[in-house]
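Ops channel
N.P.: pipeline sanity check, posting one input/output pair.
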């Protein structure tokens, strides 16, 4: 096995707990449209598949989207949600423990770091800058950068091609089955964190190559991979 050269990170639920701000925006959206309220706990289960799915789930108050929601309503809801979320200033979101320190250590060690998130691209730069982690990433790929989101491997394959790497030289770090499936679909290794958003399912069910409760363990993992 070649040593790891590139580490791709998910954002929400992996580096950042963004649910408090997302939940406020979702609640404001459903109320504006005359739908029942949603709680932060509910929204925590709804995130991970992009903003369109999140707001559709919020309107449905379920992981399973109500098929009776029409396209016009969903479009209006998405516009409202984006506006409310942008106005939030991301004041309630926060990095998980040891995230910045771990990114700094990996960056200084010479790894190429990339961000691969299903979050709409327009929100990502501001979030990264606000939490002072924007300088660590050589590439930032949002949920609308390519035609398909995770679990599609398109973003990971693009990174492999850009840096002329073999799949075994890249590690995907995430908190949800979409992250792990994207890694498997690209043929690369995966590191699953237990604390994020995974629709109530243990991340171990998706069988990542490595599972941890703490992102600091990532430093040891890449060192182990270098010696396999």
């Amino acid at each position: 096995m070649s040593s790891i050269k590139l580490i791709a990170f998910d954002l929400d639920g992996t580096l950042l707990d963004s649910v408090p701000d997302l939940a406020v925006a979702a609640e404001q959206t459903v109320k504006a449209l005359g739908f029942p309220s949603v709680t932060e706990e509910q929204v925590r289960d709804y995130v991970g598949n992009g903003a369109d799915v999140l707001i559709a789930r919020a309107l449905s108050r379920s992981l399973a989207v109500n098929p009776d929601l029409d396209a016009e309503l969903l479009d209006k809801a998405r516009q409202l949600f984006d506006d409310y979320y942008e106005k939030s200033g991301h004041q309630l979101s926060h990095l998980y423990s040891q995230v910045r320190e771990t990114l700094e250590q990996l960056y200084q060690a010479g790894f190429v770091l990339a961000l691969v998130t299903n979050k709409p691209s327009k929100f990502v730069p501001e979030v990264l800058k606000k939490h002072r982690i924007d300088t660590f990433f050589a590439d930032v790929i949002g949920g609308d950068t390519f035609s398909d989101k995770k679990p599609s491997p398109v973003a990971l394959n693009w990174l492999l091609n850009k840096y002329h790497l073999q799949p075994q030289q890249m590690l995907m770090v995430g908190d949800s089955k979409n992250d792990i499936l994207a890694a498997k679909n690209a043929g690369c290794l995966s590191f699953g964190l237990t604390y994020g958003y995974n629709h109530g399912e243990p991340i171990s069910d998706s069988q990542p190559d490595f599972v941890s409760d703490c992102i600091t363990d990532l430093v040891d993992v890449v060192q182990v991979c270098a010696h396999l």
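N.P.: looks fine end to end. The mean pLDDT is 95.
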